[in-house]
Amino acid sequence: MTRFDPYRVGRKFRLADIDPADTPCLKGSGEAQREQLDQLAKELDGLQNLLHAEGKRKVLLVLQGMDTSGKDGTVRWVFSRTSPLGVRVAAFKAPSAEELAHDFLWRCHAVVPRTGELAVWNRSHYEDVLVPVVEGWIDKAEARRRYAQINDFERLLAETGTVVVKCMLHISLGEQRERLQARIDEPDKQWKFSRDDLVVRKKWGLYQRAYEKALAETSTAHAPWFVIPADSKLHRNLMIARLLVKTLRDMKPRAPAPDPTLKGLIVE
Amino acid sequence: MTRFDPYRVGRKFRLADIDPADTPCLKGSGEAQREQLDQLAKELDGLQNLLHAEGKRKVLLVLQGMDTSGKDGTVRWVFSRTSPLGVRVAAFKAPSAEELAHDFLWRCHAVVPRTGELAVWNRSHYEDVLVPVVEGWIDKAEARRRYAQINDFERLLAETGTVVVKCMLHISLGEQRERLQARIDEPDKQWKFSRDDLVVRKKWGLYQRAYEKALAETSTAHAPWFVIPADSKLHRNLMIARLLVKTLRDMKPRAPAPDPTLKGLIVE
Q1: Quick one: which of A164, A193, B9, B259 has the fewest CB in 10 Å?
Q2: Residue B11: its pLDDT value, please?
């Protein structure tokens, strides 16, 4: 039993059971928490570096969440100490005509991490079992097919050396209101605002249901989902940083053993 | 006249005129220098963020240099404070069969920065006017054609909104010996060592000449080359960080103006 278990999605999962205002990973003063985050970010850098030196395995972090749930902020703060050499971010937007002309996993497969890399997906293939479900573009049978296709795809990744961790950034309707209002009111943030966000916000309940279903159907032993209480930004960052550090520690990455035939070699 | 001008490559450029042990950007104690680098890295993050908010222009930093010249280290330290959201690193290795089946600029064009991004190329299309020249795989006429093709390609990038900065990390033969020896002798570094590096090292003079020629032929107003004295790692990092910060400051990136029609909008 780890502290993450209550937030790991099982088959009988109800999203409403998890309070977005929870803070299981917050301890100590604000100052102490920021210091913890910085230490975790540094440890993550060291572990990623070993993963690169080892050159055999990969890590994929999938970030999903409603607008303003903090996907960009997570990338900024959890990876604040990591060299961009080993962390590759892919942001998935509404699919282009070219992408729509392919199966929905095509654009994702193209950017899976290579050996030694940690990839972060800001949105992902899960958009294709959220938006079409909410909008009614696909029926239940097609949604079921897609969940299965996703599970197969992620099993392929796991079986070929990728550790997959998926986080849903869980915020409340009220918290989203405040964050959207801030984007409207604060000139520095206005470039992040889109009127479409207000349209999507009106479908909040439908999205929560689509998330609940998708997470329950695709949280597997080889690619589990975690729901991250994310009304507190600092808590969200700390919980994801801890989860990633734990994941990498458990992988025990190590540099290759020294080559005995190099012993005594002198560079001229 | 800026402090970078003496290191900017012009037509009558001789690589031997630049001392790899120079430290024009080092001032103060080691502690003060590390503090400067950290401040520059933070400023770079802020500027990159504005570039992203603006969403119109791009930056491409090309890093070239002999083995152990510090390309990876530059990425690690200059971008130590930058969110991986806006910085994308591409490392070019010996071309694959698929890459060789295309023109030499194909794989590079595929990873140019998108709007708001800062791309860093760890090696680049310049490998194709260095290795083949040294190995005698192409004649002078073909090399000239490639310099011209490179200049045309980089003009396209510049004319379509990309600011291109190219840095050659200039180390001495003696400094390389020490760094290679350290990779052999220190178990933690051995995974970075390749026996091929010793083969390439034997062709040092040929590579210096190939660099000199390539830099002189492709240092243009729209995509200048800078030679970075790089025997000191801290100096190398500081000089490149300063150059990039100056480049971004000169671009004056700014977030879009507030949208007056959003004034007073209340989120429900």
Answers
A1: B259
A2: 80
- Given an 8 Å threshold on Cβ–Cβ distance, is A267 in contact with B198? yes
Give the CATH H-level superfamily of domain A5-252: P-loop containing nucleotide triphosphate hydrolases (3.40.50.300)
pLDDT band at A187 (very low <50, low <70, confident <90, very high): confident
**Which residues of chain B neighbour A268 with C-beta distances below 8 Å?**
177
Cβ within 8 Å, pair A184-B82? no
Residue-by-residue DSSP string for B119-183: EEEES-GGGGGTHHHHHTSS-HHHHHHHHHHHHHHHHHHHHTTEEEEEEEEE--HHHHHHHHHHH
Q: Is residue A27 scored above 90 in pLDDT?
A: no
Please compute Rg for chain B using Cα positions: 20
pLDDT at residue number B1: 65
Tell me the pLDDT of chain A averaged across its residues: 95
Say if A75 is an interface residue toward chain B (CB within 8 Å). Answer: yes
**Please, are residues B110 and B75 in contact by the beta-carbon 8 Å criterion?**
no
Pick from B53, B85, B191: CB nearest A191: B53
* CA-closest candidate to residue A54, choices A221, A248, A241: A248
Tally of CB atoms within 10 A around B196 = 10
Angle at alpha carbon of residue B217, lines to B74 and B77, rounded to 5°: 5
Other C-beta atoms lying within 10 Å of the C-beta of residue A96: 9
Q: How many contacts (CB atoms, under 8 Å) link A and B?
A: 86
Q: Which residue ranges make up each domain of chain B? A: 5-252
Name residue B146's beta-bridge partners. none
Distance CA B152, CA B139 (A): 20
Q: Does A259 touch chain B (CB under 8 A)?
A: yes
Considering only CB atoms, B76 lies closest to which of A85, A89, A177, namely: A85
* pLDDT value, residue A1: 65
pLDDT along chain B (268 residues), means of 10: 89 93 90 95 96 96 98 95 92 94 94 96 98 97 96 95 98 98 93 95 98 98 98 97 98 92 92
Between positions 135 and 154 of B, the ones with CB within 8 A of A are none
